[in-house]
Amino acid sequence: LRSGVEQLGDMIANASVIVPFTGAGISTESGIPDFRSPNGLWTRNRPIPFDEFVARQDARDEAWRRRFAMQDTFAAARPGRGHRALAALYKAGKVPAVITQNIDNLHQTSGIVANDVVELHGNTTYARCIGCGKRHELDWVRHWFERTGYAPHCTSCDEPVKTATISFGQAMPTGEMRRASELAQHCDLFLAIGSSLVVWPAAGFPILAKESGAKLVIINNEPTDQDEIADLVIRYDIGETLGPFVGN
Ligand code: NAD
């Protein structure tokens, strides 16, 4: 019986267009907790929905307090073996772009050009005004927060400033959704890596890829709802699985 990693190696070698789709599990090796594991972020904190963030100053203050409590973790994080393996496939011309649910910027840090990282849930390494969309840097937000004790409002339009992430109840980014759909429909191998595949609409992309004729591989240390439609399920650690593709 050939191992899952050997089968994955053959599938990668035989594919011409590979689209990876990543979730929080690819970044746990980098020290960023995922959402749903026992020491995941939500096991500790109920997420703040978008309408609460918009409506209440105390919710915004709490959201920024939590974000700054995570700052050292995000700032120290370096790409893991999973990120590096995908970056190598990208440089080899096999991966046109990566679709990610992650907000940690680690695919970009690993060497994938920002335009080729399709961020379905945004990015937590900078902020945006929820009114006019103006970009604000986290250092500025932090300075304001420490000086006033409150979450900031935009210097251009006075609307609240939020991390550039997509919260529950917030509209999905239309350009990214379109690009992810196109990628899922035009690949011959789709790799779902480190996602519990329960957050929608993101979880629809592996299904779309499979329905469009791609082979589907799921790499995750826990079962997912989509295991039964996958061509190969590797229920194992991501770094251990993808590390051999970059020589470690
Ligand atoms: P999730 O937490 O729901 O699922 C992560 C999955 O990865 C789990 O099934 C877990 O068992 C598995 N996993 C964790 N470490 C692993 C490892 N080393 N090897 C193999 N499997 C491993 O995350 P999700 O599906 O991405 O969805 C939740 C939401 O979480 C997303 O919307 C995303 O925006 C957000 N999020 C992002 C980050 C990040 O940017 N790094 C971190 C936490 C949450």
UniProtKB/TrEMBL annotation:
Superkingdom per UniProt: Bacteria
UniProt EC number: 2.3.1.286
Membrane-spanning ranges: none
Deacetylase sirtuin-type domain boundaries: 1-248
Binding site for nicotinamide: F35, I103, D104
UniProt-listed InterPro entries: DHS-like_NAD/FAD-binding_dom, NAD-dep_sirtuin_deacylases, Sirtuin, Sirtuin_class_U, Ssirtuin_cat_dom
UniProt keyword Thylakoid present: no
Chemical reaction(s) catalysed: N(6)-acetyl-L-lysyl-[protein] + NAD(+) + H2O = 2''-O-acetyl-ADP-D-ribose + nicotinamide + L-lysyl-[protein]
Function statement: NAD-dependent protein deacetylase which modulates the activities of several enzymes which are inactive in their acetylated form.
Protein name from the UniProt record: NAD-dependent protein deacetylase
Organism encoding this protein: Rhodopseudomonas pseudopalustris
Lineage summary: Bacteria, Pseudomonadati, Pseudomonadota, Alphaproteobacteria, Hyphomicrobiales
